[in-house]
């Protein structure tokens, strides 16, 4: 860091130039931490197998990614990258790529068996901004956004397209839990699981995002008694997923899902179901009758439009009798298969079978 002067008219202004610290290996990253660097540029770095690219303890730092970042192969849980702290700016420079080379782990089983697969990136941030990042081929889950406060994620590209033919599974885009005041905007996810899986938190916004090839956008209630409140999912496109949007609560789960809004969501070529709202969810698949204990309240499905393929279903609602205060306005085409519904609040019109 150095200081200099600029003369403007009769005034001399003192300015500060922050010089960057380039990181090519993990030893240099440790040196950057010890010397309190505030601008770190990661350049063409290879992380050894079984090691995490660890950006903890760097409050107030800007982290830039340049070139190609890669990781050695090992069966372990990871994560490959962790960023934890406050007042971070994390961004990608033009031409960079963070490449998980997930095909080395993919075996069609994801987290349900086979090889141990590391998560890609874990964020635990406050008052921070993450933007302009490009990720490719996550071994398993992509972004774990956990216990974050006042975080904005913008223009992130998660490209797992290779997993469609090479055995990718459980390659979630964004897994959000225990967060407050988080925005995810302008992102693109091509994957083999949920584009967004939001399981707890308050004041979370997911807008102007594109989801391709996966399992749609999901809000999940009933995990460990946690609540999901005041969620806005708006102006998104869900393309060639098996499900468009869904709210699912755990079988025998406890908690509350309140104030979830889906607004202006375009569905394109959904193969199974356009909108799903269920209260009998298990990781192995929905099962049996829905249970009380995690009511879905103040749910708004507004202007959900597009198409479901011919053998699919427009709507599936299967909840207990404790749901209340819903608004439903969908204009989904196709999906000729009608399935029975249960638990729809009085006065709400949802097209279902008998």
Automatic annotation (TrEMBL):
GO terms for cellular component: extracellular region. Keywords: Cell wall biogenesis/degradation, Disulfide bond, Glycosidase, Hydrolase, Repeat, Signal. Pfam families: Glyco_hydro_28 (PF00295). GO terms for molecular function: polygalacturonase activity. InterPro entries: Glyco_hydro_28, Glycosyl_hydrlase_28, PbH1, Pectin_lyas_fold, Pectin_lyase_fold/virulence. Belongs to the glycosyl hydrolase 28 family. This is endo-polygalacturonase.
